[in-house]
Amino acid sequence: MSLNFAPATGALAAFDLLYIETAGAVAHIRLNRPAKRNAINDTLIAQLHSAFIALPAEVKAVVLSGAGEHFCAGLDLSELTERSVAEGIVHSRSWHAAMDAIQFGRVPVVAVLHGAVVGGGLELASSCHIRVAEESTYYGLPEGQRGIFVGGGGSARVPRLAGVATMTDMMLTGRVLDAQEGERRGLSQYVVADGTGFAKGCELAARIAGNAPLSNFSVVQALPRIADLSQSDGLFVESLMSSIAQGDEAAKERVRAFLEKRAGKVEKKA
Fold this sequence. Notes:
By secondary structure, the chain is an alpha/beta fold.
């Protein structure tokens, strides 16, 4: 799918390590350090945080991608200094804030993956809601070989996708997963041919942007939290969110459209 993107203006045009463009209700945010394989330094993580907080009100979904041959090769180790324990905590928490702004932000985010999705790059991808992987994609968590530990939220997010055993294996042994195995283990929901990931991501983002905003917000905000609750507590929160969503005027109109046969039925697509 092709959207007519135009370069973002205002605050979103000021980030030198991100390229941001918009097409109606869809924004495209691209990591823009291709010479460094889009490795994340302090400036980039701060710009990601700021960009997701500053999304225009008309944006209803985001496509996140990486320039060049790789999505993101993780932490820029050239910036890994000898921090004190307190400084290390502050640094890690700055990553947590950026990832939370993505996962628990205002709109759903579709990540388009290709090449390296390694270390902090996998942490970033796991904070998104939908992941489309091109066949060139490979996943790694080399922190065990580097003598460090994940600090960007990976220990909380990656096991929820692929399981503790898979993450343990990747960190202890340096095991690398290809696109197909990554999909089987839950690291992506789609695998597509090289060069087609962005079009697929735009197609999904446009479809998501057409949903009722409160419904999207409920999925993004409530669903992961319900999964962390006991079943009885989760079911109670589900009842609350269901009632809130049903009471929204946009939801009522969509139900009326279905009952009056103005909306399509669920069908399996080829």
